[in-house]
């Protein structure tokens, strides 16, 4: 038997079905479901969004199980695996992931399905533990305090310097983000870091040329 015959036989063997026992299938789906529910709970506990998306969380849990089923099917037969690759290559996902943490949880869910489908249950369990600890530790590392936005409406646009003098009394850091002049009045937005928020706003409002003042907190990017 020459090399050509050996290569042909080994290639054809890849197209034959590989028996996967019912016990292996049940164990894979059981472990995947348990870890998918674990990811579901961790996402629910760790998310800080004002509007929690239960649909996205349920979808992540389902993705783990579906991915595990795909991996099992691809292991059973080479023809199925080639067809699966072709089918998945034409799928286009157009849902935008805006929060980076959502992307982390999505890849975590997919990876658990792949690992469990390959039968590496210990690796899947260890992955869940390591990712959980890593995310919790990094999430609780204190960061710089997010600045606040002072929104002031002035009846006299020439009195801007007096506003900034008052800001300097309460904040070492400040930056004018916006100036909108209309007629003789002005709308200003100043980024500040203050501790005595109530006293600061009251002193701003006490100025006779200030028509209104608002101090707004935000949870966006922190400026260092």
Task: Please outline what is shown here.
The protein is α+β, with helices and mostly antiparallel strands and 224 residues long.
Give the arrangement of secondary structure elements.
Layout: H1 3-13, H2 22-46, H3 54-76, H4 78-89, H5 100-117, H6 121-139, E1 148-154, H7 160-170, E2 174-182, E3 185-192, H8 197-206, E4 210-217
Antiparallel strand pairs: 1-3, 1-4, 2-3
Span between N and C termini?
71 Å
Would you tell me the overall average pLDDT?
A: 78
Number of domains: 2
What proportion strand?
Answer: 5-15%
| Percent helix range | 55-70%
Describe the structure.
This protein has 224 residues and is an alpha+beta fold. It has 2 domains: 3-139, no CATH class; 148-217, Alpha-Beta Plaits. Helix content is 58%, strand content 14%. The protein is built from 8 helices and 4 strands; from the N terminus they run ααααααβαββαβ. It has helices at 3-13, 22-46, 54-76, 78-89, 100-117, 121-139, 160-170, 197-206; strands at residues 148-154, 174-182, 185-192, 210-217. Strands 2-3-1-4 form a 4-stranded antiparallel β-sheet, with helices on one face. β2 and β3 form a beta hairpin. It is elongated, with a radius of gyration of 29 Å. It starts with a helix and ends in a 7-residue tail after the last strand. The mean pLDDT is 78.
């Amino acid at each position: 038997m020459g090399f050509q015959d050996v290569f042909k036989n080994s290639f054809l063997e890849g197209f034959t079905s590989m028996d996967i026992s019912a016990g292996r299938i049940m164990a894979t789906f059981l472990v995947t479901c348990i870890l998918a529910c674990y990811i579901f709970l961790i996402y629910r506990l760790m998310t800080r969004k004002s509007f929690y998306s239960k649909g996205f969380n349920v979808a992540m849990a389902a993705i783990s199980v579906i991915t595990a089923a795909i991996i099992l099917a691809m292991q059973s037969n080479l023809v199925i695996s080639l067809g699966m690759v072709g089918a998945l290559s034409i799928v286009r996902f157009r849902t935008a992931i805006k929060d980076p943490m959502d992307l982390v949880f999505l890849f975590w869910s997919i990876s658990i399905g792949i690992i469990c489908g390959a039968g590496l249950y210990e690796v899947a369990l260890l992955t869940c533990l390591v990712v959980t600890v890593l995310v919790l530790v990094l999430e609780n590392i204190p960061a710089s305090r997010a600045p606040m936005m002072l929104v002031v409406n002035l009846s006299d646009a020439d009195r801007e310097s007096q506003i900034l003098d008052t800001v300097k009394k309460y904040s070492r850091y400040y930056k004018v983000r916006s100036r909108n002049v209309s007629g003789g009045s002005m709308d200003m937005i100043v980024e500040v870091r203050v501790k005595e928020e109530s006293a600061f706003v009251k002193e701003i409002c006490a100025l006779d040329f200030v028509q209104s003042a608002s101090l707004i907190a935000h949870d966006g990017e922190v400026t260092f």
